[in-house]
Design a protein that fits this description.
Layout (H helix, E strand, L loop, with lengths): L7 H9 L6 H12 L9 H13 L5 E4 L5 H7 L6 E5 L2 H13 L6 E5 L2 H4 L7 E6 L6 H11 E10 L18 H16 L3 E6 L5 E6 L5
Parallel strand pairs: 1-2, 1-4, 2-3, 4-5
Antiparallel strand pairs: 5-7, 6-7
The structure holds S-adenosylmethionine.
S-adenosylmethionine binds next to helix 4, strand 2 and helix 6.
Length: 219
């Protein structure tokens, strides 16, 4: 879980009212908090947003870029009867992911594609009703054309960490080595807002989440 951009009392309150997670998700959350070598996962309140968006998408097939240990892949797969295709380039994370997908009994509906998303995305075909983008933040602008091609009309794109510990919004928080990433995140958000046929809002939830819907409003 990454650092949160909200007041601690707001985060604590939001987390205190979330429905309890089952054994496996609770175990992954605990590992991600306690074990430095484990993979970061979406904040629990962001995971709850994923559940809501998955329901609003009407189900169908989902795509995720940035599997980590498959916490969010499992959350998404449980909200649809369709499939989840998920991409991960870090072999250690892919190993944790396979283990968790199997423990969740979801090996038949979650397909893990191991490799670099910029190489895998061009080869993907099909229509996804929801895309969850949670990979290297500096690559978001480069991934967008592929995502728009793969997202069906009416489909939902959820982009995580777009406020990036507040750095996207506030210059004084900016760490020198993150300057390029933050510049790209700003370009990404501007592009989301300006892309014709895409309607976007940014929520200051978790580490900042952009929600975009693809579709022609005159259709
Ligand atoms: C924050 S973690 C994903 C967490 C996961 N979505 C969850 O909530 O359980 C980001 C993951 O994206 C992977 N990643 C980053 N950039 C990538 C890329 N270009 N291609 C494939 N995987 C990438 C990282 O290795 C890392 O495991």
């Amino acid at each position: 879980m990454s650092e949160n951009i909200n007041y601690p009392y707001i985060v604590d309150y939001l987390r205190s009212i979330l429905p309890a997670r089952d054994g496996l998700l609770a175990e992954i959350e605990e590992k991600s908090k306690q074990e430095e070598s484990y993979v970061p996962i979406a904040e629990p309140e962001t995971a709850q947003l994923l559940r809501v968006m998955a329901r609003l998408s009407g189900g169908g097939d989902f795509l995720e870029i940035g599997t980590g240990c498959a916490y969010s892949s499992i959350v998404l797969a449980r909200e649809t009867s369709g499939t989840v295709t998920t991409i991960e380039r870090y072999s250690k994370a892919a190993g944790f992911a396979r283990e968790n997908i199997e423990k969740a009994g979801l090996s038949d509906r979650i397909t893990l594609l191991e490799g670099e998303a910029s190489e895998i995305l061009p080869s993907l075909e099909g229509e996804y009703s929801l895309v969850f983008l949670d990979a290297a933040k500096g690559q978001y602008p480069a991934f967008l054309p592929h995502i728009l091609r793969l997202l069906k009309a009416g489909g939902i794109l959820i982009s995580d960490n777009v406020l990036y510990k507040g750095m996207t919004a506030e210059r004084s928080l900016l760490i020198r080595r993150k300057i390029t990433i933050v510049k790209r995140l700003r370009i990404y958000l501007k592009t989301l807002y300006e892309t014709e046929g895409l309607t976007t809002c940014v929520l200051p939830l978790g580490d900042g989440v952009a929600i975009s819907v693809k579709g022609d409003k005159n259709a």
